[in-house]
Design brief:
six-stranded antiparallel beta sheet; 196 residues; alpha+beta; 8 strands; binds flavin mononucleotide; 6 helices; Beta-Lactamase
């Protein structure tokens, strides 16, 4: 039976092991888990995600995260994400998308995604982390990257308790000047979208 655990501004499906949900919710950065099947409905968002987007768990759980894109095109980024989702051998992806908070304000979301796999083969969840690189924030990217690295590192033994592994590692997405330059480029796209 699937039941929902309700806490103030926090609802998560108990198909997510509770020790995993508790760990993710304590992280200061935005994190989300989606079901790997059936168009990837979100099954968990943490406190950082709720702060970043303004959406509650009630708003998001059961829905695909593309709702954050509203009318933005994001076609290159979406192609990259679809390729990552379709290709079993691609372990992670990092890309930038224009997203909108619940209050309608736009931001550039640097999205990191990787796959959680059950030992034995099944891939139950997609793991994701979101970071706002808009406006004055690109310089905070290295601090965010360090936190994402810590979060993923400490996740390994927590996942192991449920017989799961996180595929891929952060080494492929080291913080480079190119990433920051790309973030700034995307900001001009954001301005065009917000103020056409
Ligand atoms: C766990 C997870 C988190 C995601 N987070 C975001 C997000 O924060 N913002 C976003 O625009 N898309 C996010 N996506 C990507 C979209 O859900 C979707 O996969 C993407 O738009 C490509 O598919 P589409 O072209 O069919 O929309 C996320 C996907 C998954 C599986």
């Amino acid at each position: 039976m699937r039941m929902r655990v309700m806490e103030p501004d926090c609802v998560y499906d108990i198909q997510v092991p509770s020790h995993l949900a508790v760990y993710l919710d304590r992280s200061p950065i935005a994190l989300a888990l989606a079901d790997a099947r059936n168009d990837n409905p979100l099954i968990f968002i943490n406190h950082g995600f709720r702060e970043l987007t303004g959406y509650t768990s009630e708003d998001m759980i059961g829905r695909n995260c593309r709702m954050l894109q509203r009318d933005a095109d994001n076609s290159d980024a979406r192609d990259r994400i679809r390729e990552f989702l379709a290709n079993d051998r691609q372990l992670n992806v990092r890309t930038m998308l224009i997203n909108f908070r619940k209050d309608g304000s736009p931001f550039v979301n640097l999205l990191y995604m990787s796959k959680l796999r059950q030992l034995g083969g099944e891939m139950p969840y997609i793991f994701a982390s979101q970071f706002d690189v808009s406006r004055s924030q690109p310089e905070r990217l290295s601090a965010y990257d360090a936190e994402l690295g810590h979060t993923l590192g400490r996740l390994t033994p927590i996942l192991a308790e449920s017989g799961m592994v996180l595929e891929g590692s952060l080494t492929a997405i080291a913080n480079t000047a190119a990433t920051i330059a790309q973030a700034k480029l995307t900001l001009s796209d954001l301005d065009r979208t917000a103020f056409p």
